[in-house]
Amino acid sequence: SLGYVVLTASTPDEAMSLVGKRHGQLDLVITDVIMPKMNGRVLAERIRVEQPELRCLFMSGYTANVIVHQGVLDEGVQFLQKPFTMAGLAAKVREALGRSASGHSLG
């Protein structure tokens, strides 16, 4: 356990509903880049309309170069390539939240 409270959604629509119900209570959305019906970029854009401060971490089995080259994500977004380890996930979550390994804010 990394010490975070995790909520899950099976579909982008379910994620949108969950984020709406928890307005202001969430710090991070972790989403796959490629999903049926809506890709992760569109999901993040829709979430940010209502909650611009909510951070997003994207993950994919494709490399970051492929994802950026295909225009799915912009350069510089928080990205985690699958497969990943628990330590890799923990590091990316801390980075996305702007925290050091000790949990202190980096900014």
Can you offer a commentary on this structure?
It is a single chain. The protein is of the alpha/beta class and 107 residues long. It has a single domain (12-97), classed as Response regulator (Rossmann fold), CATH 3.40.50. Helices cover 36% and strands 13% of the residues. The protein is built from four helices and three strands, in the order αβαβαβα. Strands 1-2-3 form a three-stranded parallel beta sheet, with helices on both faces. α1 runs parallel beside α2 (40-50). It is globular.
Number of strands: 3
Helices and strands: which structural class? alpha/beta
The profile of the biggest β sheet is: 3 strands, parallel
CATH structural fold name: Rossmann fold
CATH architecture assignment name: 3-Layer(aba) Sandwich
Segments where pLDDT lies below 50 for 5+ residues? none
CATH class: Alpha Beta
Strand proportion? 5-15%
Q: Strand-and-helix sequence, N→C?
A: HEHEHEH
What does the secondary structure layout of this molecule look like, with pairings?
Elements: H1 12-21, E1 28-32, H2 40-50, E2 55-60, H3 64-69, E3 79-81, H4 86-97
Identify the notable features of this structure and list them briefly.
Rossmann fold, alpha/beta, globular, 107 residues
How would you briefly describe this protein structure?
This protein is α/β, with parallel strands linked by helices. It contains 4 helices and 3 strands; from the N terminus they run αβαβαβα. 36% of the residues lie in helices and 13% in strands.
